[in-house]
Amino acid sequence: MTRIAVVGAGIVGLATAHALRKTGADVTIYESGTPGGGQSAGDGRIFRHAHDDVRLAGFVSSSRTLWRQWEAEFGVELVSDAGAVAIGDSVEDKLRILSDLPHIRVALLAQGQLASALPILADFEGKAMLDVDGGAIRTLAAFRALTESLTEALVADHVLTVQHTSEGDVEIRTGTGVDRFDHAVLSAGRGTAPLARNAGLEIPVELAAHARVTFPVRQDVDTPLPTFQDGSGTFGETGVYAAPSADNRSYSVGLSETTGVRQDGSLADPPALESLAARAAAYVRHALPGLDPEPSGYVHCWVTRLPWGEDGVGIWSTGKISAIAGHNLFKQAPALGEALAETAVSGVVPALLRPEAQLGKA
Ligand SMILES: Cc1cc2nc3c(=O)[nH]c(=O)nc-3n(C[C@H](O)[C@H](O)[C@H](O)COP(=O)(O)OP(=O)(O)OC[C@H]3O[C@@H](n4cnc5c(N)ncnc54)[C@H](O)[C@@H]3O)c2cc1C
Question: Which cofactors are reported in the record for this sequence (predicted)?
Fold first, then answer.
């Protein structure tokens, strides 16, 4: 039986292990912390089809199909059916790009339709759209389902090195052991680029830090809430995203802006995280009167971006070691898991995900 190691039990590593299991491989997943505790942390993510790169929109659409298959397999809702709302002038570009993929259902929203789709939003007269098959990813349910089905494959340990041996297989050195595999997949989020470098792969990841703030939904709102992106500037910010919790009682709001990180991993400007959180709260006061502007929770998180775009993603591979990097990967995790499993089994990275393809180019 082929022995494959997956380093990192975030959503991408677990999706990869899940896909590998279906090929009959013997999978071991190394996780130094809690599964789902890294960049995948927190309740809720946005599933949206609109991306600047139409190839990525198509890839995300294939991932939507896989999320539905996971829902059937695990018997639990993993993407809500309330849709994904976007407002601002960029709506026209989003609709134009998605018109090349007619199977993706999108609609322009008139002012009244926007108010009933997103009743927590203040009056807005500009352009608005609904991505009908978008919605809120039920992140916690996804982690519950995947970790339960992969329990015996999970090893709680920190991986220090992943290297080819002179016998042609891959050696993994952890805090407490040494093991050998036929292939290793590095899906360690922030930890991927350093491990990959030791294995001979240079991944041009730019590291940053990010804050997302959660606010209670006011008592009188009982409509299932869609996710939300605001690029309009009407309410004082031009890059805002938001998603509801699974119980619809809270809404998490973040600015797409991040703060820089030095080479050694320290924040260049530590108070900037607080200021990003304060701006999110100020935005809520202006734009989202259906929320109580007193924060009820935070996600402070690392962000790993590739130089060719906010949504850039790629798979690097050398011999029997593969590594993935990119940002905003939650929505495409099921499809990335299949692509990484295919790479591990065949040794060949699917063309769309090779770094030279620059998938997600802005
Ligand atoms: C606040 C926020 C909001 C976001 N919103 C969205 C959104 O709306 N939609 C979307 O699609 N995406 C979104 N993203 C991005 C998305 O969440 C991430 O791209 C995705 O979760 C990355 O998953 P991952 O499995 O690659 O990495 P992680 O979740 O970081 O998993 C990597 C794991 O590897 C482990 N690890 C690291 N190094 C080692 C080591 N040496 N040994 C063992 N284990 C190791 C870590 O502990 C971690 O658990 C958002 C991200 C953040 C932070």
Answer: FAD
48 C-beta closer than 6 A to ligand 1: no
Instruction: Tell how far the Cα of 142 is from the centroid of ligand 1, in angstroms.
Output: 14
Cβ of 45 less than 6 Å from ligand 1: yes
Q: Are 8 and 293 in contact (CB under 8 A)?
A: no
Find the domain containing 188 and state its range.
Answer: 3-39+142-203+312-357
Same domain flag for 123 and 221: yes
- Per-residue pLDDT reduced to its tens digit, 272-288: 999 999 999 999 999 99
Q: Which pLDDT score is estimated for 362? A: 86
Protein residue whose Cα sits closest to atom 15 of ligand 1: 328
pLDDT, position 109: 97
How far does the centroid of ligand 1 lie from the alpha carbon of residue 187, in Å? 9
Same domain as 212, residue 278: yes
Distance of CA 107 to the CA centre of its chain: 24
Indicate whether residue 191 lines ligand 1 (CB < 6 A): yes
In-domain check, residue 62? no
pLDDT tens column, 226-265: 999 999 999 999 999 999 999 999 999 999 999 999 988 8
